[in-house]
Every structure is written in structure tokens, then in C-alpha cells.
Amino acid sequence: MNERAPPARRDEFPHHSPITTRWADNDAFGHINNVQYYAFFDTAVTRWLVERGFLNITEGEVVCFVAETGCRYFRPLAFPEPVSVGMRVARLGTSSIRYELAVFGAADEAAAQGHFTHVTVNRASGRPVPMPAALRAAAEGLMAARPEAV
Predict the structure, then answer these.
(1) Measured distance CA(79)–CA(26) in Å, rounded
(2) How would you label 14-26 residue by residue, b for 16+ Cβ within 10 Å and e otherwise?
(3) How confident is the model at residue 144, as a pLDDT?
């Protein structure tokens, strides 16, 4: 039988992005609906890119397309609990970044965690292009801060 890995801990992620939950994020079961976690991932990664000048959403020559996402859930969160998304880089390719993300409430263990793969593409052609050097350097910084595997 394959055992499920335990949730990641807050200190395993070098970058954290606060997210304000909304009443509309809750579902009929009284907790944040599973699809909202993907929006949390997207918001955290996009905010990181925009705040550092790596992504100009409306006019940049290079943009980032989502190629893959996935999420595992450990415990529910609910509005109005504030959350943060921990972010680290798991892999860098020529034109792709695989982020590992975790959503934290008040606890130091992730309520949910997953991955999000971006591909850098030319806006006009929609075709993959090599990642800009400044983005690669920043992403490598998120990799270097990751704790060693046990």
C-alpha cells in the first residue's frame, strides 16, 4: 500500500503570499471550495511574477501559460480565516518552472498543497521561448532556499 506523505510545514517554503478569503469562497459544506485553492495558487504565483517585474500582464512580450496543476487536500479552511500560500521552485526547464505551493491557515502544517507549472511563451506566437535570465535567477533563489530532502 502506498502511504500518503504528510503535509508540508510553513518553514519549508521560502516565499509566502497572503490571501484574503471571501464569504463566496465557502461552499455549501461550510468550508473553502476545492477549486478556490487553484485560484490561490494562481494568485500567489502571478503576484510574485508581477511584483518583481517579470510579468507585464497586458503588454509583455513574454507571458506565462499554465501547463499543469494539481492539489492534495489535508484539512478544510473556511472564511474568514486568513490564509497564505507558501511557494518554492521544484524544477526549472529551458522554458518551464514547476512551483510547489502550499496553503496555510493558522496552523504550521499545510491545509492543501500542490504544484503549478508555467511555460514561458511569446505573447504574439503563443510558442514556448527560453525563460528570461532575470526570471531564471529569481526562480533559482526559490530553489536554493528549499530544505534538503531527508
Answers:
(1) 6
(2) bbebebebeeebb
(3) 54
